[in-house]
């Protein structure tokens, strides 16, 4: 049975590097919401009210990516989903959707201190390396960090969740 690996955490926690490594290790297909979002919507990004603009498009893209993931899973291939589900209610609903479709799910939650995450985001903004999808301003970083809701005890009981705290790991190891 093909497996779904959901990778979550706050901005700058190391999700993209972790996802790429896991996809390589599992020979799985990695679908990252940010990459699709940039390709489809960035040319239309407004100068103001970016968060509301983003949230209005995110749900449609989540469902589109889930549809693609199901096609990949039907072929027998594992899928790594990096979806930016930073709020518990939306993340839990998405996990329930995966399980209802009959696929096993493991969620990997990465985190690091806010200071370390901001340093990583600044480095990624400068270098625009393989994990760069879009410029993350300090304002967007702060808003997204404040919105992040780590899984609580109830969520951990309901789903197979594995936690990683990456403060001490260099960015290249993530």
Bin the helical content.
Answer: 40-55%
Rounded Rg = 15 Å
Helix and strand pattern: EHEHHEHEHHHE
Overall shape: globular
Please give the alpha-carbon distance between the first and last residues: 27 Å
Number of helices: 7
Which stretches of 5+ consecutive residues score pLDDT under 50? 170-174
Organism: Undibacterium squillarum
Protein name: Kinase
Pfam families: AAA_33
InterPro entries: P-loop_NTPase
Task: Describe the structure using short key phrases.
174 residues; alpha/beta; Rossmann fold; 5-stranded parallel sheet; 7 helices; 5 strands; globular; disordered C terminus; P-loop_NTPase; Kinase
Question: Could you give the topology of this structure?
Answer:
Elements: E1 4-8, H1 15-26, E2 29-32, H2 33-41, H3 50-74, E3 79-82, H4 88-100, E4 105-111, H5 114-127, H6 138-147, H7 153-158, E5 160-165
Parallel strand pairs: 1-3, 1-4, 2-3, 4-5
Characterise the protein shown here.
- A 5-stranded parallel β-sheet has the order 2-3-1-4-5, sandwiched between helices.
- Helix 2 (33-41) packs across helix 3.
- The protein is 51% helix and 15% strand.
- It has helices at residues 15-26, 33-41, 50-74, 88-100, 114-127, 138-147, 153-158, and strands at 4-8, 29-32, 79-82, 105-111, 160-165.
- 28% of the residues are buried.
- It has one domain (4-173): 3-Layer(aba) Sandwich (Rossmann fold), CATH 3.40.50.
- It has 174 residues and is of the alpha/beta class.
- It is built from 7 helices and 5 strands; from the N terminus they run E-H-E-H-H-E-H-E-H-H-H-E.
